[in-house]
Amino acid sequence: MKANVRLGVVCLARKTFDFEAARGLYKEILTSIKSVESIEVCAVEELVIEVDEARAAARYLAGQQIDGLVVISGTFHLGHLVLELDKVLHSPLLLWGLPELPYNGGKIRLNSVCGVNLNASNLYKSGIKTYTVNIGPTIDEDWVDAIRVDAAFKQTSLGVLGYRAKGFFNLGVYDLNVYEQMGILINHFELTQVWNFEIADAVIDEREEQVRKIFDVTELNEYQIRRVAELTAKLNGFMDAEGITAMAIRCWPEFASEFGISPCAAMSILQSEGRILACEGDIEGALSMIAHQAVGAETPYLFDFSQVDFEENSALLWHCGVAPCNLWDGKCTRSLSTYFAGGKGVTADFVLKDGNVSVLRLDSAGTDYRMFLTQGTVIPMEKELRGTYMKTRFTEHVKDVLQKVVDNGIAHHASVVYGDYVRPFRILAKIKGWEVIE
Fold first, then answer.
1. Residue spans in the chain of domains classed CATH 3.40.50.10940
2. pLDDT in tens, 289-318
3. May I ask the CATH class of domain 153-437?
4. Residues forming CATH 3.40.275.10 domain(s) in the chain
5. What are phi and psi of 338, to 5 degrees?
6. Which CATH number fits domain 5-139: 3.90.1150.10, 1.25.40.10, 3.40.50.10940, 3.90.550.10?
7. How far is CA 366 from CA 20, 250, 405, in A?
8. Which of helix, strand or coil describes residue 344?
């Protein structure tokens, strides 16, 4: 399910053109927009023609808490109008031009595209370069998805449990920069707050039954199985109690040494249920997963670029055993093992399913943000390793992909999802002023 988004919509016009035809088209457009998944429309129902009407529209929309503004050029119009709207709203803008209507023997009827050109030029020369242009009969849903991500960030309650993993300096963030860029305040919790969180035995019993049903647990002892079930219940209950929508977890070394197991298996289960959980305290990994989820991608998976094969042109997207268990390939045995952390790892082991995938890493360097984007196809493979993994061939040669990652100092985790999810993030990067690396 895509994140909810609240859009303001206005249609600009001028009476020297066929504004009555534009009014009819506008009504049809509003009906079509309202049919798009998870959109709430706050429309100025009448055409905006005069400057005072633009000011009134801006005042109305300012009270609606919109996430983005759709400005339709129903016909050519005064150049004042979009500037009057932006002066008050400062919202991400979609400038929408309509296809020209058939000629009827007179002058051009709409001249809508010229109106878009006028708006874009006025905005650009005012220093406002974050608008997106759409020409066609339907709304640009990739722009809508970009706005969904921005809205989802602002609605996120992000927790960090413990700290980043030992030595992973590159996963550190400047908290107030995250707030400035995305409107997210990071809430810090101690590991012991989850470890000591009280859960009813009946809930743990249900989770234990779930663990045994999903995984082959023959390598585990009874204490470890019960501990996985207990941690699954504790993490889920703690996030509910604190109102946390996403959490980055310092998953080692204290979990294994002090709680008795690592959290990988519990995180695998909870992620399959839609939770956003990032390992090793990776806050920007969590942000990348939030972004993927906001555009409707299911169960993001945080991976390492663990192995590259230049001759085969492939990369192994691996992690120690935390991928959502619903992404299993359906062929190998999903199992839990203790190969990690001196026998206390309790990680998931399985190959991920085939398909086309999209990769995203939202990453900072100092106070600058950038997005790493790429796409690929999963290559079927046998279960040969511990952990959770997929072998992937990218649209570019793997050597070039890796070179971009290391040349730009991108962190060693990224979010991967099944499906085509790239263009919304290019649009989002333009809106936010972030660099795109792809």
1. 5-139
2. 999 999 999 999 999 999 999 999 999 999
3. alpha beta
4. 153-437
5. -120, 30
6. 3.40.50.10940
7. 53, 22, 17
8. coil
Contacts within 8 Å (CB) and 24+ apart, 97-106: 97/73, 97/133, 97/134, 97/135, 97/136, 98/22, 98/25, 98/72, 98/73, 98/74, 98/135, 98/136, 98/137, 99/135, 99/136, 99/137, 101/18, 101/21
Asked if pLDDT for residue 344 goes beyond 80, the answer is no
The mean pLDDT of 233-241, rounded to a whole number, is 98
Structure tokens at 14: 């001028």
Element (H, E) at 287: helix 283-294
Sheet of 246-249: strands edge to edge?
Answer: 186-189, 158-161, 246-249, 276-278
- pTM, two decimal places: 0.96
Rounded mean pLDDT of 42-57? Answer: 98
Find out whether 208 and 225 touch, Cβ atoms under 8 Å: yes
User: Could you give the count of Cα atoms lying within 13 Å of 105 in the half-sphere of its Cβ?
Assistant: 0
**pLDDT mean across residues, the chain:** 96
pLDDT of residue 17: 97
Residue 411, pLDDT above cutoff 90: yes
- The model's confidence at residue 156, banded by pLDDT at 50, 70 and 90, is very high
